[in-house]
């Protein structure tokens, strides 16, 4: 990640921007999101956006028209009652019908635009969510292991499906109400020019207060992202099937719930303080605009009493001033909401803009070693440190895996075994040194090409809540429907017995998340995961990261016999804590605190009498009576 973007990521956690200049810069940055948002809306639904714009224009001019007709009605009534020439009931009724027509048009426009907003909201929300998910696919493992990126994702997902539309609707509202206000002002200026100034001036303090509170609300929510995730995590502990046993056994319920309550209470207090301040300012500024209205009302009513203006003019004045006040408030509150929306959008765009492509091949075009048979895999003085960590997870590891060689990888917890696998799959790049496959640096290969050559079972393999056939077929999505291939992979992985016992065999939905799901034992799941790796028939390298942890001893023996036969023409790396398993490997690498401590065949290492020999004997003792 670039330093600029990581600064941006870290900013919300830090100190509050106090200075006015910072605030203004924040506001400008917020509003800068508008063009990007409009582009999103345009992509989501062009026709809908245009229709909404048209309806907005119509709704903008109608109020002034209605107010003017209202004045004409009153004047016509007064004239008719005085028996003025040309005045009569007909004209009055005609004008009333005209007002009815305008009101009906206004109502229809309002309904239609609310319908259009609903439809646009759905399409836009969907588009934004898709973008968020597409981005998640483009992110690399290092992003998922970085809590700051998680916070960004959380902030983006929180409201981003509602905010883009809001930004657009509010912008339209600003335009609509400004046009309405201009039309109403044109009517008002005739009667009393200074009341236009009063109308606008009385609303400005309320606007400033609102804008400030909006910025604060946004910041409170952004700061909360890490705590928000913690809150979700506590919820997750109490509601997930996988956690129930420990929660019950250890009696974790009250503890977790009390932490949940404490966090929630903290959120509530912050929200309450903000809401109370908002209310206080609201009352104060509401009173101010009320005083402005009644002040002007008294003056204009006095003029009507002195017959300086007509009764119709007074009616017009009342309607226009009130509507004008509403329009000013609408503009100001729309601007405030837009500001809030724009700040949220900046979070979304910051998330969508997280630089990826760190996995892209360095060489152009990417280099591709010949396919079809395993090639030598060389680690050349490889050292690796996780981003942001001081400690080395791997230090100066050099070893060469000959084509077709089977390597056993052992070492205590945290020795760096899984990290090595991550580097081999280019989920990370070495901090120092290099890894070559067939003489080509992994960084010069297309990562998709590299990964297509590898079949792997991870320590934390996935239990897909899909059918049994899909659970295996997903190992090679292009062959998801190829049942003979899936059956063959199941046989190799030792999962055929598991399938035979299922009520609907291949069609059985596995796991307990969905209706009619059939739960499996840990070992049965693991057999499926191994079978999934065997779907990749063209794999040149097989990696098994503790594939036997949940499998019983007999099944393990069987698996490894099969594995030896199947992997005959492939290279393989097997990580295991069971030394009885790794002893069948051609050579064994012993890792200790990230360093390669010993390397050799079982016989050689036993003869050497080092760490491996010691640990092997210790385990063997355990089996002896
Ligand atoms: N995502 C990560 N971020 C930071 N440090 C990590 C990360 N994953 C692992 N580590 C650290 O790197 C070191 C090596 O971990 P690794 O998972 O490779 O060990 P391992 O040999 O596979 O252990 P185990 O036998 O327990 O699976 C450990 O000290 C661990 O704390």
TrEMBL record:
It is found in: Cell membrane. Residues 50-340 form the ABC transmembrane type-1 domain. SUPFAM superfamilies: ABC transporter transmembrane region, P-loop containing nucleoside triphosphate hydrolases. It comes from the Bacteria. The chain crosses the membrane at residues 49-70, 90-113, 167-188, 194-215, 281-300. Keywords: ATP-binding, Membrane, Nucleotide-binding, Transmembrane, Transmembrane helix. It is a multi-pass membrane protein. The keyword ATP-binding applies. Residues 377-618 form the ABC transporter domain. PANTHER family: ATP-BINDING CASSETTE SUB-FAMILY B, HAEMOLYSIN SECRETION ATP-BINDING PROTEIN. This is ABC transporter permease.
